[in-house]
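Q: Could you fold this chain for me?
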Amino acid sequence: MTRVIAVIGSSQGIGLELSADANTTVHAGDRYLSEQLLGLQATRPNVHAYLADVTEPPALSTMASTIPHVDLLLMVAGVIGPRSPLLERPTTDDPVASDLLRVFSVNVIGSWNVVDAFQAKMGKGGKIMLMTSSFASMERTTHAQAPSYSIAKASLRHWTPGWDPS
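A: Sure. Below is the predicted structure, expressed as structure tokens.
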């Protein structure tokens, strides 16, 4: 039986790795279509690429409308934002609030947009995975390296969509 995976944020890394299994159909959405992703789509019939930015719900809905069902929805899209500690940023940088809003809108609201667009495609036993990182850990990171990213990824750890496919 073929497993159907929708990967959002698939221009590199995890999304591309999933397409190696011939028993998996991968629907890969990203804000831009990388040459590597387009190359896989051209050479593997199980890979389908879509232009779908997480900050644009209509693009996500269009992608979802072309897929009959999804067994696994994997959200890996994200931005890291500035890497300097909040209190040590050069005064020439953008205001902290604008950095935080940009990162939050992609990493958190973007995740919500993805789940919202695909939830009707998830069947019984379907899984939704929202990718975080060690930067989301209160115990394992100082948050000084990428504070906006740490805040956004920590919020994903505490966010559950309350989705029940039964």
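A (continued): The first strand starts at residue 3 and ends at 8.
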